[in-house]
Amino acid sequence: MPNLLKVNDLSVSFFSPQGELEAVRNVSFSLNEGETLALVGESGCGKSVLCKSLMGLLHSGAVIKNGEILLQGKDLVKMSESELCNLRGSEIAMVFQDPMTSLNPTLTIEKQVAEAVRIHNPGLSKAEIHDRVIQLLESVGIGQASELCKLYPASFSGGMRQRVVIAIALAGNPKILLADEPTTALDVTIQAQILDVLKDVQKKLGLSIILVSHDLGVVAKIADRVAIMYAGKIVEIGMADEVYYDPRHPYTWGLLRTLPALSDGKHELYTIPGAPPTGINLPKGDAFAPRNPFALPIDFEKEPPMFRISDTHYAATWLLDKGAPDISLNSLDSIVSKQEAMMQHKSGKKTVRDENILEVEHLSHRFKIRRGVYVNAVKDVSFNIKAGEIFGLVGESGSGKSTVASCIMNIYYPLKGSVRFKGIDIFNPKEASKNKDILKTKRQLIFQDSSSSLNQRMTIEDIISEPMVINRIKPERGSMKAEAEYQMKYVGLDASYAKRYPPELSGGQRQRVAIARAVSMDAELLVADEPVASLDASIQAQVINLFRHLRDEHGCAILFIAHDLAMVKYLCDRVGVMYRGKLVEIGDTAEVFNNPQHEYTKSLLAAIPKPDPRSERQKEIHIYRGETHECE
Amino acid sequence: MNANKSARKKRKYKDKALYYLKKLALFVISVFVLSIIVFWLSRLTPGDPLMAYYGERASQMGEAERAHALTRLGLDQPTLTQYIYWLKNAFEGDFGISYKYKQPVLSVIAGRLLNTALLGGISFVLMFILALLLGIFCIWHEDRLADKILCKVGTIISCIPEFWLSLVLILVFAVILHIAPSSGAYTIGHSGDVADRIRHLILPLIAVILSHLWYYTYMIRNKLAEEVREDYVLLAKAKGLSRRDIMFKHCIRGILPAYFSIMAISIPHVVGGTYIVEMLFSYPGIGTLSYEAAQLHDYNMLMVLCIITGVVVIFFNILSQIINERIDPRIKAREKTEEIYESLGENGGVING
Q: Helix or strand or coil: residue B353?
């Protein structure tokens, strides 16, 4: 097969006041005609930058330091902006991560697709363009396209918008499609559909696809080859089967083991220790060495070259050198099981107590769309949470999970129903004001987006001690400072962070601060609304483990709201599934996952991507189409 | 189905009519409240209203003569009674006479209104065209030398007070260089000569535009800077669109609603600026008239001038609200979605896929 695209020794840097940030370091790979190459790595590993540099879309701060990008023999790096402009869309097209923002909100769908058609086919008449737009929209699975194309993006859901973006990308009959995290912002069932669309158009049009993702599970379905990136370098590259079933780089092992989909019933999720480097002042030697449990002395001295395993499979680790000790994925598994044995020993006690800390009964809430029209966001939802229990609430976006959380936290006053926290009816003004201290301190909320939910102008210490100040609680450990430091240590933050501000911390660290703030009140119920959705896989695992520790040692109950089923399966004791405002299934986690009753739960479970290419390729997606939201 | 459709259409028109009625009510109430406040405040300010009518003679009047004069002008009544009289007459179209000009207020103002409308209108239009062009220019060269120089120059000029800028302009262009006339709206006896009027407008226009331009240029620059960083711009680029097309077909569209509402809201600033400049250039407009009226306690004149200014300001403020609320693409999108769903025979909400 001829190489359509060949990247040789490419390096891209950003220059910031802190110094040079090496985003992509000496990357080489090739892409064959009609193949799908997946680029996988955590955020900040340079995969998006690499993708944008292939299209000349880097912003002005980025510099291609060396290397070449050969598209059918022509070097893109040396091309002028106008030459690149001709290339975009007609040779290489791109699909972006967030379909909610990547369409222009002020133009109709038809105009936006037609614009792309017109650029690449200047001679077409209006009617021909219209026909082509409809054909493109239908090819990505949008039915009734001739009516729907007159709408603005605001009327489309995320999945539909992503289809439109793909249609725009296909308008110029490109040879290569770059998909930068095309499904990350979407629900799990929609995610599977979009991947199907990509696979489908590839088959029909003979496209080559470069699929960028942070999730090995997602790419398993359609990737022919997989490249793993870490700190700006490709550390392992090979055919999908080779990388999934015979991984050689310790980072790949770590990625495979942090995925909760694989850790069935295990007590502790494996975590890669530490956090990925930022790219400024990278450590000497192998950048992964500080996080590598099998690092050899040479790893800290010299960067490993790409070792050849087979004609298609290469990995950059000294473990593949002739003199290296014999270490494989099994060695990691033995470490994991040792950790686990220790944990099991420690947390042998049963934490769930037989008393309801939260009782939600027939809760209904609706939102006003305009005068006289309401949408029932939550309809007749009842469940209870026992003390010391982790209860998971799952469902796609818009299913009403967050509204339930807001009602429980007294943020919304529901239309109907009651919520009792420790036996207190929280919507009864008399009872609530009598017990307001308990309500204010014993229930705590943790938000999804830690960068906007923490005040950027307060130090970490102030943030953690603020609830104690407000509620006039005397700190147990003498001073507020000591108390804050204790809480920080408790959630795994170094006390040296006390005087820093939230923007200086990473996403995982900020989420720990949010947890510390909640825990400092000695909370008995934590309501965590998508607490790990915006974090990287390896960091997600750390935070999830922290939740588990909190429950085991603290005995607090947790209402864990998530759309990631694998996470819920791993963490929760019981789980409730919400669909369009209704609670369609509730039960013990094992029971719900092994023997789902409701059609929707079944389709949700089937859609979870597993890092197992062989079974993923066979999988067919069944979409549950139940009733829509009821409007009045 | 059809009955349903016509019912929906009816409801839509009803909603719209209600919306505009509310805005109209808001407008009327605001003007009414304004008239009360101005009437009351003007009576509170110290000074002798008879000065406007009788000039120097007012200070030499005896007790009886004075009382007679006050009664003649109706100023001996309590303020509330005066206001009610004024309001009654105003509804009949009679706004009283100007104490200074001894003519009906409206006819005095009518002669001046055109002058101010010319100065204000032309400077407003020019200012916003220039601000838009400069804003686009800055973003086109963002963070490069041209952008940086323009921003610095703008900062410096906007620090110069309007009155001082006017004086410097008069000194340089009228007194030293003799390029443009320093005062008036036209050479006496040539009120119909267009070229002459334009020559007289040049310096006041420059003064108004220069002192207000930069603020709006920055606003547009910042709005555009946000807009070009939106994700959809990246997608447009990936489509293969040229930079010019992205800027003019996508980004400008995105900032237009905000731009229009800024324009509408800026009217009071421009009007205020025009008044100051009119004073300095002895330009016979409403600004100079208001100044005289306030100084001389020419109550009837003051009332009408304040109400004219107020009506303009309130009207454009409400207009900017309407622009903000109605031009929003999401509103249009929702209406269109409903229509199309109607034709597809499904019920409302977001289309799921």
A: coil
Phi-psi region for residue B36, left (φ > 0), alpha (ψ -120 to 50) or beta?
A: alpha
Distances (CA, A) of A540 to A111, A257, A530, A570: 40, 13, 11, 12
Domain annotation for chain A: domains and CATH numbers: 1-91+210-347 (3.40.50.300), 356-595 (3.40.50.300)
Q: Is the pLDDT of residue A48 over 50?
A: yes
Would you call B253 an interface residue with chain A, using a CB distance cutoff of 8 Å? yes
Whether residues B353 and A150 touch (CB distance < 8 A) is answered with no
Across the interface, whether the CB atoms of B353 and A90 are under 8 A apart is answered no
Residue A255 has pLDDT above 70, yes or no: yes
- Give the span between the Cα atoms of B167 and B178, in whole angstroms: 14
Q: Is the pLDDT reported for residue B14 higher than 80?
A: yes
Position B349 confidence tier, pLDDT thresholds 50, 70, 90: very low
Are A458 and A538 in contact by the 8 Å Cβ rule? The answer is no
DSSP β-bridge partners for residue A559: A391, A527
- Residue A474: what residue type? K
pLDDT average, residue stretch A487-499: 84
CA distance A420 to A383: 11
CA nearest neighbour of A395 among A129, A580, A603: A580
Mean pLDDT of chain B: 83
Distances, alpha carbon A548 to alpha carbons A389, A441, A564, A566, A567, in Å: 10, 21, 17, 15, 12
User: What token pair was written down for A579?
Assistant: 């669909």
- The Cα A60–Cα A414 span in angstroms is 50
CB A616: neighbour CB atoms within 10 A? Answer: 21
pLDDT of A625 higher than 80:
no
Residue B291 has φ and ψ, to the nearest 5°, of -60, -50
Cα separation of A259 and A560, whole Å?
18
Least confident segment among A405-409, B23-27, B53-57, B147-151: B53-57
User: Which residues of B fall within a CB distance of 8 Å from A148?
Assistant: 340, 351
**The token pair that represents B54 in the structure block:** 């009788």
Cross-chain CB nearest to B240 (options A88, A157, A375):
A88
Work out the angle at residue A161's Cα, subtended by the Cα atoms of residues A155 and A164, and round it to the nearest 5 degrees: 120
H-run or E-run covering A487: helix A480-490
Interface predicted TM-score of the whole assembly (ipTM), two decimals: 0.73
Q: What is the CA radius of gyration of chain B?
A: 27
pLDDT digit string (tens) for B219-255?
Answer: 899 999 988 888 888 888 888 888 888 998 888 888 8
Q: Does B63 touch chain A (CB under 8 A)?
A: no
Strand partners, A239: A225
Q: What is the value of pTM for the model shown?
A: 0.77
CA A183, CA A193: separation in Å to the nearest integer?
A: 9
What pairing do the DSSP bridges indicate for beta strands A582-588 and A574-579?
antiparallel
Query: In Å, what is the CA distance from B258 to each residue of A104, B134, B253?
Result: 16, 17, 10
Q: Can you tell me the distance from the alpha carbon of A495 to that of A425, in angstroms, rounded to the nearest whole number?
A: 39
Indicate the burial class of B291 (C-beta count within 10 angstroms; 0-12, 13-18, 19 or more).
middle
Burial of A72: CB neighbours in 10 Å, binned 0-12, 13-18, 19+: exposed
3-state secondary structure of A580: coil
The whole-number pLDDT of residue A267 equals 52
How deeply is A547 buried, as exposed, middle or buried, from its count of CB atoms within 10 A (0-12, 13-18, 19+)? buried
Sign of the dihedral defined by the CA atoms of residues B26, B29, B33, B34, in that order: positive
User: What is the residue-averaged pLDDT of chain A?
Assistant: 84
When CB atoms are compared, the residue of B15, B243, B344 closest to A147 is: B344
Which of A313, A185, A321 minimizes the C-alpha distance to A252? A313
* Phi, psi dihedral angles at A45 (to 5 degrees): -85, -5
Check CB contact under 8 Å for A105 and B330: yes
Burial of A81 (0-12, 13-18, 19+ CB in 10 A): exposed
